[in-house]
Amino acid sequence: MTYLDAILLVGFRLFNGDRSRSAIFHLVSGKKTSQTIQDAHLYGAQDFFQLFPGITREAFDDSCSQLAQRNYLIQLDEQRWNVSKEGDKALINYFNFHRFPIYLKGWLYHDRAAVFWKRLLLLTQSLSNYAYRENRFYPVQRDPDVQHWVKSMFLKWGNDRIDYTKRLLSELTDLCSDKKFPDHPDFIIQQMTGYQLIGMTSNQLADYFSIDDWEVHIRFLNSLHFIFSEIQNQNKYPILYSMQDDITQKEFVLTVSTEKTMTYINQAYSVEQIAQIRNLKNSTIEDHIIEIALMIQSFSIDRYVQRRMQDEIWQAASQLNHKRMKEIKEMVPDASFFQIRLVLVSKGRMDSEWKKPYINTLGSGLSEMVKKK
């Protein structure tokens, strides 16, 4: 089993046979549609969003086929699949020997951490060459925005660049030597380029650690997300914090149309009234409300669904052990599909229970190959 196989099995386990194979593909590839975003939050799979932004459908389908051939996946109907008992056992066994990525924050960090990493690579390369008085080198990042940012930092630091270089090195050393650091620091360090030193590629790291390319990617991403989380402490990591403070997004991001709807919601307008004012369908306004409930933890749905009905819907979903709305509605016929969706996303948005068995029993797992390194 490859690391990709294992991650996809976790995804299928999270969706529990409720969603199609395509939904898993859209989740891990990071397709930014309302349905994928809703799935990610509804099933507690936000952390797995856009884990493999460059994955092809061919690679995804090949992995799924391999899992099915081993009887790790069972087909429920034409579109839906779920993890078999054999698959569950294989997943447990795999993560007994391979570190589980408990620090991944795909939905929260996917764009921001990527920009930070590009800046870090080019800044460290530039500072290293500056320290050795080398003005000519091939930049590891060709992104004009990243290059402009590094140039601005060089101008800002002026004659104190060597001092800032030492401080940056100290912060990186403290981070990578922290007992909480989730993996081998080489997943980060060996990719950096400096004076007369070329960073390793993913393929080279895979050979170095005797693991597959997919595992290199996820374990690097897990370490990067850990770093990104830690450097939010401005007092402890002032240099690293300054490298991302301008790219830190709002706590939640709504589409422009949903933000307009929210202004009317805050004025206590009903769905029908907002739809009439905005010349939109009721269902469109309901979609906006679903998006708001997903993005804003403090948003109350009580005005749309009575507490008693909320409890009935959630109890039905818990009893069925899935979140297929048609079957939930059969158990709570008085509820509309909008109310069912709203309750599921509202009550499920903080659901991260799926992590516990992996964190408790698998989180410290490390392959023997990596231990030797």
Topology:
Blueprint: H1 3-15, H2 21-29, H3 34-42, H4 57-69, E1 73-75, E2 81-83, H5 85-95, H6 106-131, H7 144-157, H8 161-176, H9 186-189, H10 202-209, H11 213-230, H12 238-242, H13 256-265, H14 271-278, H15 282-295, H16 307-320, H17 325-331, H18 337-348, H19 355-361, H20 368-372
Antiparallel strand pairs: 1-2
Helix pairs in contact: 1-4, 6-7, 10-11, 13-15, 14-15, 15-18, 16-17, 16-18
Biggest sheet character:
2 strands, antiparallel
> In which range does the helix fraction lie?
55-70%
DSSP E strands, number: 2
Instruction: Determine Rg (CA atoms, Å).
Output: 23 Å
Envelope shape: globular
Spans where pLDDT lies below 50 across 5 or more residues: 359-373
Strand content: under 5%
Task: List SSEs in N-to-C order.
Answer: HHHHEEHHHHHHHHHHHHHHHH
Provide the structure class.
mainly alpha
- The number of domains is 3
Description of the structure:
- This protein has 373 residues and is an all-alpha fold.
- It has three domains: 93 residues, Arc Repressor Mutant, subunit A; 137 residues, no CATH class; 92 residues, Arc Repressor Mutant, subunit A, CATH 1.10.10.
- A hairpin with a 5-residue loop joins strand 1 and strand 2.
- Helix 10 crosses helix 11, helix 14 crosses helix 15 and helix 15 packs parallel to helix 18.
- The protein is globular, with a radius of gyration of 23 Å.
